[in-house]
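Lab meeting, item 3. Inverse folding demo.
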């Protein structure tokens, strides 16, 4: 997790003996950098509305930056990235090109410094109304205006964001051994079948698989504590 209000998470990993993984519904867009066999790549990832299967390049090292909900790229509207993304051209091991400017490729320890530069230059922006809503405030505008601006900034409805975040949190709790009944009541699911349907749709795992760590590689860190 990041201390920056512009960043949700910074992550890093190495792929070993894995050629595919379960992708998980996500509310954030991000920048992903990876190297394989001496070649460097960079891409923009978008929010994902459901689970699926994604290929994984073998023997690659990755660094990713997941941006906070409500932020966006000046040149690429977030709604165009939903359930997709785009590879950035002209990437080298040291630099990448974004919004017509060449930037230094970050490691996990200087990802926030890169974000600060992107923000100062106006490449990364955000809608303050969405930030206000995410903090639990009620702006002095109509609900219709809030929903329109929320969707324009994130590519998702407020309801979709809540459902995805709830399923991801429930997955982490179940993987950590929390009783199912506590997850159902704590996250306000109607009942256990309601939770099970959400896990299938957004995470691609059953409660048993989460408990046992089964099902193969998954694009979700289930070892890290979460908060509501």
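The presenter then showed the designed sequence:
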């Amino acid at each position: 997790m990041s201390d920056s209000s512009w960043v949700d998470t910074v992550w890093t990993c190495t792929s070993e003996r894995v050629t595919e993984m379960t992708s998980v519904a996500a509310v954030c867009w991000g920048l992903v950098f990876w190297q394989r066999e001496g070649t460097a790549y960079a891409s923009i990832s978008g929010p994902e509305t459901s689970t699926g299967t994604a290929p994984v390049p073998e023997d690659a090292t990755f660094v990713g930056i997941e941006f906070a909900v409500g932020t966006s790229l000046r040149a690429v509207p977030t709604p165009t990235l939903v359930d997709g993304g785009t590879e950035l051209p002209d990437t080298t091991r040291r630099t990448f090109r974004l919004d017509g400017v060449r930037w230094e490729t970050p490691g996990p320890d200087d990802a926030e410094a890169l974000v600060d530069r992107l923000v100062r230059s106006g490449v990364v922006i955000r809608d303050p109304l969405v930030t206000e809503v995410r903090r639990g405030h009620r702006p002095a505008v109509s609900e219709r205006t809030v929903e329109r601006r929320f969707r324009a900034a994130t590519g998702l409805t407020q309801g979709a964001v809540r459902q995805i975040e709830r399923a991801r949190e429930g997955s982490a709790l179940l993987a950590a051994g929390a009783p199912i009944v506590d997850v159902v009541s704590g996250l306000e699911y109607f009942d256990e079948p309601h939770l099970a349907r959400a896990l299938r749709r957004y995470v691609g795992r059953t409660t048993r698989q989460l408990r046992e760590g089964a099902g193969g590689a998954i694009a979700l860190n289930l070892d890290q504590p979460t908060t509501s």
